[in-house]
């Protein structure tokens, strides 16, 4: 077989993390449910333990350090991200917390994008601050000017592009240059684009985080996270997250692997459908603003055009101010857009978005909603939104005219 790193992404998605010859010829890497691995003799244990320190060798010793299923998922993701190796984690949030606990100590300073995922913010505000870490938030569009915020003890810059809820796209290469010039690391949450649509290590990222719960698993049926690092950081991060007891089950890693097989076709369809819905919404009288990185209105759109290879299915929309009963009538009468947490599955979702912090000119006053456009027929989704707007209008006739 050709080395994974010379293939194009669609081939990596098809063949990564699979080795039928090692598994009785079966196409898929099986689920290895295992706590205990039997070693062949007394003299092998010390050798196994030594190998556990070598990132190139992986004898499986104990389930908490992984098993052949989790290792296959890690290999497949690392090749897509373009990093050295990946570490499977029990959730996206565990990947965030584990990365920070591996790299940051009391007395360090961290710079965090103001539009980061809400629970990441809580890790910074509660766990990191309690540890004696200095936490400062920076405006997401700051770019190279972040250099002015660097302190002698700045250990890392934490980025997310586009950011949660408000979708500003960050200048990742500029953040990487400034961080590295100040002796700091750049950590990025790459969940929105997935490694298919943004190549973090090409743009200077040191640690890339995926909430694999979203697009990688892709079917809303498992919690999973992945950390991918450069070679320089791998051992440090692996030792710490495994010492903290973070591991994912073989069943969930299997679902991650199975999700990867269709990630390319799913993501291209999410992209196409979400753009169609976003453009349709942008023309609606009820809508003040659509926040989709591929549309010129979105802050950081030029950076999206420069650095990203595509857009996924998640974006924001600001509705004109209407009474809550009309807003709830709109949401509750949708039949295809369900209201729920998470995103990245095959199904469409909508929710009121909270916690938006930074926006260059301020968001227009209205209702910020977050949509995930699933794999349903676009015309059915548009008809669903259309009839829900009619329900809102029935509750409040000025839905599309009030300033
Ligand atoms: C959902 C999400 C996470 C957390 O992932 P979980 O698997 O839910 O813990 C992290 N980052 C972003 C951007 C997310 O949307």
TrEMBL record:
Pfam families: Cys_Met_Meta_PP (PF01053)
Record-level Gene Ontology MF annotations: cysteine-S-conjugate beta-lyase activity; pyridoxal phosphate binding
Modified residues annotated as N6-(pyridoxal phosphate)lysine in this record: 214
SUPFAM superfamilies documented for this protein: PLP-dependent transferases
InterPro entries associated with the record: Cys/Met-Metab_PyrdxlP-dep_enz, Cys_b_lyase_bac, Cys_met_metab_PP, PyrdxlP-dep_Trfase, PyrdxlP-dep_Trfase_major, PyrdxlP-dep_Trfase_small
Superkingdom of origin: Bacteria
Listed pathway(s): Amino-acid biosynthesis; L-methionine biosynthesis via de novo pathway; L-homocysteine from L-cystathionine: step 1/1
Catalytic activity: an S-substituted L-cysteine + H2O = a thiol + pyruvate + NH4(+); L,L-cystathionine + H2O = L-homocysteine + pyruvate + NH4(+)
Biased composition (Basic and acidic residues): 7-21
Annotated family: Belongs to the trans-sulfuration enzymes family.
Protein name as it appears in the record: Cystathionine beta-lyase
Organism for this UniProt entry: Pseudomonas japonica
């Amino acid at each position: 077989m050709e080395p994974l790193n010379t293939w194009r992404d669609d081939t990596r998605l098809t063949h990564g993390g699979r080795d039928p010859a090692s598994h009785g010829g079966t196409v898929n890497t099986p689920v290895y449910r295992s706590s205990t691995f039997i070693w062949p003799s007394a003299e092998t244990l010390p050798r196994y333990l030594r190998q556990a320190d070598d990132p190139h060798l992986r004898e499986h010793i104990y389930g908490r350090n992984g098993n052949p299923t989790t290792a296959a998922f890690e290999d497949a993701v690392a090749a897509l991200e373009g990093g050295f190796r990946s570490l499977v984690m029990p959730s996206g949030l565990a990947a965030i917390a584990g990365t920070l606990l591996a790299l940051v100590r009391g007395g360090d300073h961290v710079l965090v994008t103001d539009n980061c995922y809400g629970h990441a913010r809580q890790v910074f505000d509660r766990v990191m601050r309690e540890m004696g870490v200095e936490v400062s938030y920076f405006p997401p569009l700051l770019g190279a000017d972040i250099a002015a915020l660097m302190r002698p003890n700045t250990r890392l810059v934490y980025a997310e592009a586009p950011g949660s809820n408000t979708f500003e796209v960050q200048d990742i290469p500029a953040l990487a240059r400034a961080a590295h010039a100040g002796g700091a690391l750049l950590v990025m949450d790459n969940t929105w684009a997935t490694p298919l649509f943004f190549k973090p290590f090409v743009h200077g990222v040191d640690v890339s985080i995926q909430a694999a719960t979203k697009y990688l698993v892709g079917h809303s049926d498992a919690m999973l996270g992945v950390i991918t690092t450069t070679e320089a950081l791998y051992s440090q991060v692996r030792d710490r997250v495994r010492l903290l007891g973070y591991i994912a089950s073989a069943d969930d890693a299997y679902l991650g692997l199975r999700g990867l097989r269709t990630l390319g076709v799913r993501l291209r369809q999410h992209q196409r459908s979400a753009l169609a819905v976003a453009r349709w919404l942008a023309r609606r009288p009820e809508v003040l603003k659509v926040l989709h990185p591929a549309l010129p209105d979105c802050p950081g759109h030029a950076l999206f055009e420069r650095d990203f290879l595509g857009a996924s299915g998640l974006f924001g929309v600001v509705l004109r101010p209407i009474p809550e009963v009309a807003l709830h009538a709109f949401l509750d009468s949708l039949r295809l857009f369900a209201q729920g947490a998470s995103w990245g599955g095959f199904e469409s979702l909508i929710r009121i978005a909270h916690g938006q912090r930074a926006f260059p000119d301020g968001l227009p006053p209205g209702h910020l909603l977050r949509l995930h456009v699933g794999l349903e027929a676009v015309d059915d989704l548009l008809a669903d939104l259309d009839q829900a707007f009619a329900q809102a209008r029935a509750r409040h006739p000025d839905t599309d005219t009030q300033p």
